[in-house]
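Blinded run. Sample ID left blank on purpose so nobody reads anything into the name before looking at the predicted structure. Input follows.
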Amino acid sequence: MTVENQTPTHGTIVNEDNELGENATHGQPHHLVERRGDVGKCPVCGSSVDPDAYHCATCRNYYCFHCRARLLPSDAQSECVNQDCGYYGKLVCGICDGAHDKKEAPLVYAEPVDGYWPLWLGIALIVGLIDWYFTVWWFGFFIAIAVFVAGGYWLQKKGFNIFGTEAMVTHERSSSYRTCILCQQTTKEIKTKASAN
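Blinded prediction complete.
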């Protein structure tokens, strides 16, 4: 891999020096990525820096290797982990290295649903009291229990939610990842590397 420096005002074009002109990982032709700004000067204080640097030793600020914007600890930052890439280990901001959404397997679980057994108990007691009024008390009590248990079981089998049931809940999930703007491989996210000076 080579870094070709033109005059600093024209930027730098980073290109893999591959005889076949193909990405060894993906088998796709490399595209040219042009860095912005004067790569020989710090974009914050203007001091001379190495063209491959993303940190200024003079003002102690980190900046994006690609667009050269100053990076703060709160900014999204990532670096390429592909050792064959020209951007390997270089700090790149979240604007240049945007996030991609990836759909994950949905989360499925059973959630209990309360039944209407208090209402059904009230109906069974009313039926039992009516039988007690026309017959004897123990027969009314037996009818109330039979209506509540046997009738509730029959209604539950018919699809009415008397004694409670379970509902399957599905939650869609997704995650985000970043890819290198040069080699398109997944990058490593950096939490708080930049200085806020």
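Unblinding after everyone has recorded impressions. DSSP finds two helices and eight strands in the chain.
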